Records
---
Amino acid sequence: MALHNVIENLIHELRYREVQPHLRPCRRLADLGCRYDHFFLTRVKDRAKECWGLDVTVENGTDGNVTIINADITKRLPFEDGFLDQITILAVLEHIADPKAVLAEVRRCLAPGGRLIVTTPTKLGIKVHDLLVRTRLVRDVEPDEHKDFDVSPEALADWARSAGLVVEDVHSFELGMNAFLLASRPQ
């Protein structure tokens, strides 16, 4: 296995280990920006009766209780109001020009009490990742693909609150290189 694959897999594994303890068993779970391999969703599909993965890089399909949809998550999501119990957005917001709009749409799709789990690199994490890209130690994004915003746990919490979500937990992890958010739609 190439060195860049080892490093990319380690980065993903550390993120998934941060998120998994916060996932609850539920009826409906969606992973927004699930990637071409929808690996995280495949890994946690036993936590929900029905799962959806949305990304512009995937082809529509199903695999057991997982439905994959080619969709742009910056547009209206293909779910009715209050349809989902949990939504994950893992290392995606840093690729989006208007993360606040995505969070507002997430609120619409969450059932009352439904939960949102987000991870995103902080400004430090983006700088480190971009350095790894330039040195070709990772190849999972193009150079300068990340949007230039000063994300921090506090900024992530502010975005969630402005979308009408209740922040339950927000913190940094991986030596401050990533931010974690757990928020919910009010009852």
---
Amino acid sequence: MPLPSSSVPGTAEADAALAALDTRRSVPPMQLGLPAPDQPTLLRMLRSAVRVPDHGKRVPFRFLAIRGAARDALGERLAVRSLQRDPEASDAVIAKDRARFSHAPLVVTVVARLGPDEKIPEQERLLSAGCVCFALLQAAHALGFGAVWLTGWAAYDAEVARWLGLAPDERVVGFVHIGTPKLHVPERDRPDPRELLSDWIPA
């Protein structure tokens, strides 16, 4: 049975869908401004972002939105924590940490929910949460926003995890900064899939 025309590569619908994937860019947080997605728009993005492979239907992820004054409050805590981690940190480093969450108007923290599971390996659940980060980037792009997926030391720090209210079996997979791009982000070099693809031939 032939495939529906909308599923055949080269049709207008397929080309538009692939163009949305091909034109996505990571936008630096300092280049993300207002407006941010409002709550209904954010929920629409997340509705697409959660459509990821999820072996066993574990839903091994959740979200924390950091916006408004909470961004600066978290930045002040990061500045203090940064100095605790490295008492010799320069003023520039401390200033960078203080402003880390203050540029983009919205930061969505993607949290992986892990812990013991008799059937589904932790690695698979962690990868599902990672897929959510990328799907959220694509959803933001599709709706005309810019976004970038970042981690940094704050994603792996136990004190930061405590501030964010993470359980012992949870971890930050990424901070997805979202806003309206202030400038056009140029394309960068991408790998050539022809150099990455090979056929497995049994010995």
---
Amino acid sequence: METAIRINQATRDQLKDIMLDISWAKVSQRYFGKSPSWIYHKMDAINVNGSDGGFSETEKEQFKSALFDLSERIRNCANVL
């Protein structure tokens, strides 16, 4: 079983600049194939269905990749204007 990684206050502070600008529900669906509540539970490190709460190492890497992909998509849109 993988160890869960909780998004602590420092990480939440790092996301603060984009927290309200991104549809986390869409990120959850598009990049993880999960429900909107899933990502909010992960970000808040809420224990669901016996898990430790938070992101596993694999999910953390997937989350990082999702943010990189999203940033690249935004950059591509900006470049065609």
